[in-house]
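Milestone M4 deliverable, item 7.
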Amino acid sequence: MSELGLLFLKLGTIAFGGPAAHVAMMRDEVVTRRRWISDREFLDLVAATNLIPGPNSTELAIHIGYRRAGWPGLLVAGAAFILPATLIVGALAWAYVRYGATPEVRSLFYGVGPVVIAIVLHALLGMAKTAITSVWLGAIAVLSAVAVLLGVHELAVLAGAGLLALAHRSPGQARSAGAGFMTAMFLKPLAIDAGLSSIFAVFLKTGAVLFGSGYVLLAFLRADLVERLGWLTESQLVDAIAIGQFTPGPVFTTATFIGYLLGGAPGAAAATIGIFLPAFIYVAISAPFIARLRASKPLAAVLDGVTVASLALMAVVAMQLGRVSLVDLTTVVLALAACGLLLATRINSAWVIAIGAICGLLSQGLASRL
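Output delivered:
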């Protein structure tokens, strides 16, 4: 158990680069170095994380913990992987609240914002190549984007996309699931204040329904926290995204940062527990049935539809956040340069954000002198 905890504490501290990098690091540690499981077993666990909502790399850590040491291992591996990033992001959130209004810090985020948009678009392009494997799925992605722009609730869009994909493969099963889609269409957000229970509830809902990459988290956060509840501004959300990208571990620790902005250290704890709790529950439920989940054609069809709809949400949010971050020629050039760098190299996104921050400081310093 101690070896398991120490391994995932280490991974949570050094795992920069997003979910794909996290998966590669875990494979190297548990398959190649320690031989805890075979490559086939590892791929089965990766597939299982794609069939349930939540942060994939965190769920993979939880699965490995369960496979290695049962229920205690499930808790230890997941908590150890999340803890380092939570502490780092919490410290950065404290510094942001205390010093975020200073000219130097605002100049830093002036350069970071455009780079974040570039990182999101680059991730979107890479995932779209894998996810959109047919004209039908491409059409679902377009319809999902249009629905979001027309104001349809995100959960309804995801449910509808899953049913459309299922209908294409299994029409009878799609009809029997129609009631769920109609229910989702009428979901209404509650008008609530940012108390601890409310913060927990918002992030619990997000963690419970979010399929796809951690980048899709942005769509849900913007819809709930910026548009519906008014708890954050667009620029604060972009800053939160940047912190989640710059730090190691799960991108979902963006919730820690936002929770601190809304309610200090207790708010950070409430948001973090809320967004990660469903992952532990889903893995605990699904772990004994991995083989069946992987072989289920209806589940695979629904997953395809939900995945492309998630990408559509991500594209719409990137466009909306771009209006906040791309404010002049300098920021547009920064975004284009970051896109070119990401496409031409395999540079870690954390370094791209660091370069953007330096460019922001330099450009704003030059502007003030002129």
